[in-house]
Design goal:
The complex is a heterodimer of chains A (262) and B (285). In chain A, 32% of the residues lie in helices and 23% in strands. Chain A has 9 helices and 10 strands. Helices cover 82% and strands 0% of the residues of chain B. Chain B has 13 helices and no strands.
């Protein structure tokens, strides 16, 4: 069974068609990259899949459960998916320790007392911090973390409870090259050991070529999809991006007229 | 028979006992809600609520009704409208709130000058009056405190995640919009009920100062919440005692005590900082 099924998805953002008739599936334990130029509707697509913004038409199924029109999903399905944002803008303002934050990832959805879970919660947090190499960071405040540390703590937040689907928004944003490398190898290991299915919005086509099984190229509509070596060929990329701002390799050839997009 | 000290005389008065209990409860409540309000950038919103409360009270007096009973529904309606305005408008929030609070203050003062018979006077409304706390207010504050503690405890995870990142919370099924409105309503009612003792002009200090003081010295979220409530309640009691002993207006006395609390916290946090950095060398990213 596919972990995520999207069929004929159409999303309006501020009255403009942002996602048009998009269909795809994510097989269990696959790693899929969502690529496309700025304004291509990547965040609208992710928002609609998670039930954060309404959809005009189409169906979304997560773990076989249909996403309601206002983003309703059974609590046990919600507990098995997580969204990793690019950054936490208020990270510096909250006097919140890493261990407390990761503990909130363990709590199942719905109202509960903050001390519920007791020992089980504590040992889950401890194990999650150890798995992500955040062991020494438990008592640090979120505000005291570097960019790379914060990303690892976000992975600890995901790994603290068994999950099936992870959606990442530009995981490499704001990271230097070594931290990006480290993050992706950690994500790769955890995906294998935890059985995660990953959908990641990305601008880093090199990383996508190296580590993803499937690519979805979005520019309002799904322009191409498939294995990275096919979907990210020069010809496909020129259909997707304006050739002047192709994000990275393969080495640029002489542009042969501007392909029209959209 | 020993001679009665001024302290015993003040504390012996029933109105003063009511005021102290009321102050302890409102101070703790302000500190607790403030710890979230400050994080969510609602400090200025609570200021606007305070000013609108004066308009509510004035309308109550003008209509000859019990001001407290008029105030709560008025403040709730007002908060919902302002929230809608802030969410829909393209204008900066602080500018909108400025328009809202100065206009409410203007209307309120005009209303109050129409009522020449009002015995309290505007001074008490602006700066607070411990004589103003009735048994009804005490009961309301106690109910509110229980409700606020219950709501925040049970939804603590949702509150923190919504504050950190709305989409991260939304992916877990936490309705940011719903929690936002619920919190604003709670804050509104608390401000409305506390306004008599604290005064319109200084109510936002009740929300902001204890939370900021606590933020400076807390290294866990749980500590932050508890300490903020303790600072809020403690400063209110000290300030009200000071007000009773000196016959100065209650609101300013409490705020001055809060400010000294904040100053202590600031000094404490500055003192601790260099040692903490040395004790925890940065772990490589």
């Amino acid at each position: 069974m596919a972990v995520l099924e999207v069929e004929g998805l159409r999303v309006l953002r501020d009255g403009v068609l942002a996602v048009d008739d998009v269909s795809f599936q994510l097989a269990a334990e696959s790693d899929t990259a969502l690529v496309g130029p700025n304004g291509a509707g990547k965040s609208s697509l992710v928002g609609a899949i998670l039930g954060l913004i309404p959809r005009q038409a189409g169906e979304v199924r997560i773990l076989g459960h249909r996403l309601g029109p206002a983003g309703q999903l059974p609590a046990q399905v919600r507990a098995q998916l997580a969204f990793l944002p690019q950054a936490l803008p208020l990270q510096g303002r909250l006097p919140l320790t890493v261990a407390e934050f990761v503990g909130f990832g363990w709590d199942p959805p719905g109202p509960r007392l903050p001390w519920g879970g007791g020992g089980a919660r504590r040992s889950a947090v401890h194990a999650a911090l150890a798995k992500t190499g955040c062991g020494p960071l438990g008592e640090r405040l979120l505000s005291e973390l570097s960019g790379g540390q914060l990303k690892r703590v976000l992975l600890a937040f995901c790994v603290v409870r068994p999950r099936r689907l992870l959606v990442l928004d530009e995981a490499q944003a704001g990271l230097d090259a070594p931290s990006t490398e480290q993050f992706h190898s950690l994500l790769f290991d955890l995906r294998r050991s935890e059985g995660w299915t990953v959908l990641q919005v990305s601008h880093d086509l090199d990383m996508v070529r190296r580590s993803c099984d499937q690519v979805l190229c979005l520019n309002r509509q799904l322009r191409c999809s498939g294995r990275p070596e096919l979907a990210l060929s020069r010809a496909q990329l020129e259909r997707l991006y304006d050739p002047a701002d192709l994000p990275s390799h393969p080495p640029r050839q002489a542009p042969m007229g501007r392909p029209r997009i959209g | 028979m020993t001679e009665i000290s001024p302290f015993t005389a003040v504390v012996g008065q029933p109105f003063m006992q009511r005021a102290l209990v009321g102050g302890l409860l409102t101070g703790a409540l302000g500190g607790l809600l403030g710890s979230f309000a400050v994080l969510r950038q609602l400090s200025f919103f609570s200021d606007a609520l305070g000013h609108s409360a004066l308009l509510g009270i004035s309308l109550g007096i003008l209509l000859g009704l019990n001001p407290t009973l008029v105030l709560i529904p008025f403040a709730v309606l007002f908060a919902l409208l302002v929230n809608l305005l802030v969410q829909r408008s393209q204008l900066p929030t602080d500018a909108l709130l400025n328009i809202v609070y100065s206009t409410s203050l203007a209307f309120a003062v005009v209303c109050l000058s129409l009522v020449t018979t009002y015995k309290g006077g505007i001074q008490q409304l602006l700066f607070g009056d411990i004589l103003g706390i009735s048994w009804l207010d005490l009961a309301l504050i106690a109910v509110l405190l229980v409700a606020a503690v219950a709501y925040l405890l049970v939804s603590l995870r949702a509150q923190v995640l919504v504050t950190l990142h709305a989409d991260l919370a939304g992916a877990f099924g936490v309705g940011s919009q719903w929690h936002r409105i619920a919190f604003i309503l709670l804050l509104t009612v608390v401000v409305a009920v506390s306004i008599k003792a604290v005064g319109v002009l200084l109510i936002s200090a009740f929300v902001v100062i204890p939370a900021c003081a606590s933020r400076l010295v807390s290294r866990r979220f749980g500590t932050y919440l508890v300490l903020s409530s303790v600072i809020g309640g403690g400063c209110a009691v000290l300030g009200l005692l000071g007000s009773g002993l000196t016959n100065l207006p209650s609101g300013p006395c409490v705020v001055i005590v809060q400010f000294f609390g904040f100053l202590l916290a600031l000094l404490w946090s500055l003192r601790g900082r260099p040692q903490r950095l040395r004790a925890n060398p940065a772990v490589t990213p």
